[in-house]
């Protein structure tokens, strides 16, 4: 195996896209996602070659890493003479979990990233607090982050790494923490970096802050971005229609408000569910604008054996966009089998049309298989349309060859070092992605 390299993941900086073709069917369908392979230049931290499958995906990575060490210090340390942390990395756990979920990842990230990072494990939503709703948990997380920033004056940049439900908490929190920069709106921005919403004439431009810091990376691991309604979105229900039908009305009794939000049945029938609101900018928060401020957004998704979160919802894809994944791991990252960059898809964003309100009312009051399927298909398409207005790097993970593949949901973040250590390659991949983005941001600031 090759030594783990930096990963070139320039998600928002005009990556060269090959073989990205718009399907002829409809404007709401996303284009084919392509491998992002920037050419080597003086500003690049890393250059690499990649064997691809029809020009679409990374099957392996050949490393040609540049030397980022200056007199025994990292590139960050070379410009940080006081050796104080400048980059806050917030780790957010999932449902019914605690800070102990990150024991291995925290130690490994500290070892790999060095003292320029302050790695903070969120503790504001432990165990049953995760049942109180995504919005409530997101607000608590935001207050927690504000306190950390207030007490650490040296911080300049911020990133998030979240597992499972924690990814939705983090998405809500960044909207609470978001401040647009009214003085830095470059109207000549690259179309790959901004998508204009025609009716409202809204554009996504960099320049805003999260908790007063420069947003760098937003990374989720097995997060149900589209909720858990629908075919095989909650795999332990085995795709059985009767079980999927019963899960929605029962969920709130077991996991509170969070359950109804995940199943998209929260709120009044004539109001969009929370997860749909979080796929756009609305009165409740600038959810999409906050996400758009990050240099890089990466979703890691289990392609199989995840009993909690399906591949489609964790990778923000339609059913038709799922293809058979490679079985061979990328060099240096065991069980990481695929990586692709999906550029922004122009659209007028997500909506809650009248027929969606009727479908939601039917799903709430008469939750039969037909009603719930129709409603979820409508909501899933609208959420995807909203979220795909931003570019995403999508990393597929497969534990099919692991000793305990059915632990995929906990393997992906190495919840327990001994039981779930199949995921160490994923954490290595995350660390190298963070490291590369950190180096890129520092180089850009010092050019």
Can you give keywords for this protein?
447 residues; two-stranded antiparallel ribbon; 12 helices; Rossmann fold; seven-stranded mixed β-sheet; single chain; 15 strands; alpha/beta; disordered N terminus
Give an overview of the whole structure.
Pfam families: DUF676. Residues 16-43 are annotated as: Disordered. InterPro entries: AB_hydrolase_fold, DUF676_lipase-like, Lipase-like. Residues 83-313 form the DUF676 domain. With 447 residues, the chain is an alpha/beta fold. The chain has a single domain (46-446), classed as Rossmann fold. Helix content is 32%, strand content 16%. It has twelve helices and 15 strands. The strands form five sheets. It has a seven-stranded mixed β-sheet with strand order 6-5-7-10-13-15-14, with helices on both faces. The protein is globular and about 60 Å long. The two termini are 35 Å apart. Mean pLDDT is 78; it is low at 1-31, 35-56, 59-75, 182-203 and 232-240.
Q: Order of strands across the widest beta sheet?
A: 6-5-7-10-13-15-14
- The domain count comes to 1
Rg of Cα set: 21 Å
Contiguous low-pLDDT stretches (5 residues minimum) are 1-31, 35-56, 59-75, 182-203, 232-240
> Looking at the structure, what is the overall shape?
globular
CATH class: Alpha Beta
Q: Summarize the helix and strand pattern as letters.
A: EEEEHEHEHEHEEEHHEEHEHEHHEHH
Given the helix and strand composition, which structural class is it?
A: alpha/beta
Q: Using the 3D structure, state the CATH architecture.
A: 3-Layer(aba) Sandwich
């Amino acid at each position: 195996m090759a030594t783990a390299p930096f990963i070139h993941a320039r998600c928002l900086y005009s990556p060269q896209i090959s073989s990205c073709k718009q399907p002829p069917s409809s404007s709401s369908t996303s284009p084919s996602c392509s491998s992002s392979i920037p050419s080597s230049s003086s500003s690049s931290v890393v250059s690499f070659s990649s064997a691809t499958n029809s020009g679409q995906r990374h099957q392996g990575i050949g490393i040609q890493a540049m030397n980022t060490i200056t007199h025994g210090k990292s590139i960050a340390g070379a410009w940080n003479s006081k050796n104080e942390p400048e980059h806050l990395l917030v780790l957010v756990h999932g449902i019914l979990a605690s800070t102990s979920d990150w024991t291995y990842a925290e130690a490994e990230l500290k070892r790999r990233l060095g003292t320029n990072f302050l790695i903070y494990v969120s503790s504001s939503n432990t165990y049953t607090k995760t049942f109180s709703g995504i919005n409530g948990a997101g607000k608590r997380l935001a207050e927690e982050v504000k306190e950390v920033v207030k007490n650490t004056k040296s911080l300049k940049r911020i990133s998030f790494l979240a597992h499972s439900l924690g990814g939705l908490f983090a998405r809500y929190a960044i909207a609470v923490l978001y401040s647009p920069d009214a003085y830095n709106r470059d109207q000549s921005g690259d179309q790959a970096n901004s998508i204009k919403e025609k009716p409202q004439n809204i554009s996504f431009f960099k320049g805003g802050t999260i908790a007063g810091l420069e947003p760098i990376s937003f990374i989720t691991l097995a997060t149900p971005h589209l909720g858990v309604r629908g075919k095989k979105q909650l795999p332990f229900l085995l795709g059985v229609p009767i079980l999927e039908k019963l899960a929605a009305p029962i969920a709130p009794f077991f996991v509170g408000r969070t359950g109804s939000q995940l199943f998209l049945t929260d709120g009044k029938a004539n109001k969009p569910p929370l997860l749909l609101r979080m796929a756009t900018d609305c009165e409740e928060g600038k959810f999409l604008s906050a996400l758009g401020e990050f240099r890089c957004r990466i979703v890691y998704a289990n392609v199989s054996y995840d009993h909690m979160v399906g591949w489609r919802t964790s990778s923000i894809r339609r059913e038709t966009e799922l293809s058979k994944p490679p079985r061979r791991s990328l060099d240096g990252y065991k069980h990481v089998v695929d990586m692709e960059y999906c550029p922004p898809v122009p659209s007028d964003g997500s909506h809650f049309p009248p027929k969606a309100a009727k479908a939601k009312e039917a799903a709430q009051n008469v939750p039969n298989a037909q009603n719930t399927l129709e409603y979820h298909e409508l909501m899933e398409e609208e959420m995807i349309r909203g979220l795909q207005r931003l570019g995403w790097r999508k990393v597929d993970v497969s534990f099919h060859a692991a000793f305990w593949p059915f632990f995929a949901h906990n393997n992906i973040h190495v919840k327990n070092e001994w039981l779930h250590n199949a995921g160490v390659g994923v954490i290595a991949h995350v660390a190298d992605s963070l490291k590369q983005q950190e180096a890129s941001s520092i180089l850009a600031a010092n050019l």
